[in-house]
Structure prediction request, 96 residues.
Amino acid sequence: MADRFSKDEVIIGDAYVNANTITPDDANNLSQFTRAIWVGGVGNLGVQMVTNPDDVAANVENNVVFIAVPTATLLKIRVKKVFAANTTATNLVALW
Prediction:
C-alpha cells in the first residue's frame, strides 16, 4: 500500500492533487492512504486510520466509526481502509 506523504510535512490548506471513488471493503486497504474523505451522502463511516510507527510495531489497529456524517462533508482524516460492514455513508471520495 502506498503512502507517498509519509515523510512530507502536510500543511493545512494545501490542495489535494488526486481523487478516487471509494468502494468500502472489509478485507482490502485503499490503494493510497487518504488525506481527506468527501462524504457525498449521509451515514456512518467505518475506517481504519493511518497509525504512527509505534502503533505499527505494536500491531495496534486504530479503527473508528464516524456516526451520522452529514451529506457534503469533507473529513480531513488519514485513512488506509474503509469498512463495508460499518459504512452506510455513500458517494465517498478519497483525496490525497
Notes: The mean pLDDT is 87. The chain has one domain: 19-95. The longest strand covers residues 43-49. The two ends are 14 Å apart (CA to CA).
